[in-house]
């Protein structure tokens, strides 16, 4: 379902902890196993590259106007219509070109062989359950630097560079290490606890700000036949969408930084234990929808939309992904996570928001200029408005909402960001260490704890072990907040 620059040393990434105002979506997507084990790859020689076209005011990247461009999209919560519309604009601008467009949920299994052969497509939406590890891709020199795109004139205003039209934090998230920008996060996601305002009103309750209040709301829901929570049991790395910002709220941003930095004993911080204990209490008191550990993201979202559970941790793509099951009078809303109590380091409203839906241009693509030009089209005001109206999300383009009636979820997301102010956090575990985040912390740690098969203490010990293994693994590129 679904980040940017300012790095000064080869050892780390400069942090943008606070990403101001923006709301919207980015399907985060899941891990997959070790990927691109042999990405030195054959094929893809410079001889196979499309010849450069003539640079003009309308073609600032010098796209070859007769070279085919191939675009592979992740077919997820945002659907594919927005991308198909942008492809039509590309084809109008280059009438000799018939773009080869496809959409799949199996990004890694479909594209890994092509990376290994040196014949990848020109533009990829690297998202979904089979998301390729961005750190591995960049360390194997498989990604093109998107700086030429960022420094090109924007689609709408030749006096503005593309980079000057983007939301705060987008460029920084795409950097990973040093100045090159490897990733363009197209969507902007608000992560948090999603719920029906109508259902909450029916309990005569407001969204709980402390954990005691959360337990009281869940108890009241339980007495009315509704579970307090559900989540994607088969993909429990959705749990951090609310758990990580809760840890940051309780212990401060430095706790999240230490976790991202793979520091020794980072997971043993008292704030982590307090939050794990709180979530485990939901299991102990029977406030989690029965059968949740066996549900995937669609099944859990459907049960929640049907009123079987009050709260679900998710990203803002959920409004579009569940549009066919969310009732018209649902009154979708999102909140920053509930804290423990008044001793928390940061105020209620502290939320996680960041770029999502990562687009990449492979270094060995035949038509890298074409891939970047397609992104330039997508970062226009018209394409951004089209995306927002069709998928109920904002884009990386800083604007594009004039004249659009915002949906309930998007309206709530914008309000949540307004309330957060400077207290917007951006944990990087999910894009720095995909396998660690999804398979180990998510499935083997949090998933087991929330199913009652590990205690919080056992889960913390296990997760710290996973983090230590990753920190010591010299085959893995390591990053640090600066």
Summarize the helices and strands and which ones pair or pack.
Elements: E1 70-74, H1 81-93, E2 100-104, H2 107-117, E3 123-125, H3 134-139, H4 147-151, H5 170-173, E4 184-196, H6 197-202, H7 211-223, E5 227-229, H8 240-251, H9 253-260, H10 270-284, H11 297-305, E6 309-315, H12 318-321, E7 332-335, E8 351-360, H13 368-378, H14 381-391, E9 394-395, H15 408-420, E10 424-425, H16 429-432, H17 434-450, H18 456-472
Parallel strand pairs: 1-2, 1-3, 5-6, 8-10
Antiparallel strand pairs: 3-8, 4-6, 4-7, 4-8, 4-9
Offer a few descriptive terms.
482 residues; alpha/beta; ten-stranded mixed β-sheet; disordered N terminus
Which residues form runs of ≥5 with pLDDT under 50? 1-35
Number of strands: 10
Strand content: 5-15%
Number of helices: 18
- State the order of secondary-structure elements, H for helix, E for strand: EHEHEHHHEHHEHHHHEHEEHHEHEHHH
- Globally, the shape reads globular
The major sheet is characterized as: 10 strands, mixed
Q: What is the CA–CA distance across the termini?
A: 27 Å
Task: State the helicity in percent bands.
Answer: 25-40%
Computed Rg: 22 Å
**Arithmetic mean pLDDT:** 89
Tell me the structural class: alpha/beta
